[in-house]
Amino acid sequence: xxERQLQQFMEAHLQATPSVRRLVVGFSGGLDSTVLxxxxxxxxxxxxxxxxxxxxxxxxxxxxxxxxxHVMQVCDHLSVPLMALRVxxxxxxxxxxxxxxxxRREAFVGVLQAGDALLLAQHxxxxxxxxxxxxxxxxxxxxxxxxxxxxxxxxxxxTVPLWRPLLGLPRSRLLAYAIEHxxxxxxxxxxxxVRHARNFLRHEALPLLEKRWPSLSATLAQTAxxxxxxxxxxxxxxxxMALVAIDAQQRLxxxxxxxxxxxxxxxxxRYWLQQQDxxxxxxxxxxxxxxxxxxxxxxxTPLLAWTGCExxxxxxxxxxxxxxxxxxxxxxxxxxxxxxxxxxxGRYLYASLPLPPDSVVRFRQGGERLRxxxxxxxxxxxxxLQERGIPxxxxxxxxxxxxxxxxxxxxxxDLYANAAGARLSWTPVE
Length: 430
Known about the structure:
Strand content: 15-25%
Structural class: alpha+beta
């Protein structure tokens, strides 16, 4: 039965993470989460932590309100505090299932606090289903690693542990536990709809394959473990390459990148993007990055964009960033430098000293010249920015301060007309 494995898992992870003071169980009311919540409650005196439950009401089923009532009744019976959250599922990309999972994840993030660990009830059969599903989609090592028993979830308070203590147990063990303890659970009618890919695998493909290979679910779960080990080794390899290829500004050196074999280049690119929390490109887009950006001429400034991300090249470096907001044409503002100035793209501009009277802030329009402190003649601002290696997309976003229509200072650089004047800086966009 699950109790012994669950206790071993919880004690080991609580010992390794002493900051955890509360276990929050994701509780849908189905068989799996009902077993998890019940078993954790029985272990609470031994574990010495608080127990809570969180239920997400998607509103996708006509039975959703009845499920919420059932969940409340179960939690009342177990004396477990319940956080019931209602979300709106609005699929924009992908399937309704994916949108529901994303909404549920966001709901969890919104209630988790420092000292919490989130417990989810996925089991061995779920893991096998995930491996097979991702194999059908052509996943690589990372995808076939499937779900981890212990990982982290970003939350408002930082990151909180995300644990799946039932991942090594087949569903049959959970069902036996539920029957033994006379538990009641709900059945989501949508889980029987084989039009959904995962339901097709669960109800038709896997049972058929298990007639020929009875240990298939356990075998696929072991495959996921081996893929997790392989992914860990690849992560270590990428981190070693990153030490020589990625600088303090998070730029990727193209010459260093190209010194590696092609598989290592692709690995390093994925690692670089992942470390900055950008959505990883699919294989076709990754190849496009290699062909159109990495292999571009040194004097080219190519751009590739995908959801939430822009990847650019300037000279010998790759840059990645969130999509840049368009600046309003002709924007300018009078500013004395005494208080922060809110720029149109959400940055705040600061001055170390008050500015000369009648100072005006605006962005580049082309043809600007600057006579720097200690220099007899003015120089083209474009050339000065090129000499400093400032990428073209950054140049057009540098706030310029003019006094009586004469360029006085360029924020974020060493370009000033007055050596004793104010120095300008800004906060990044939140």
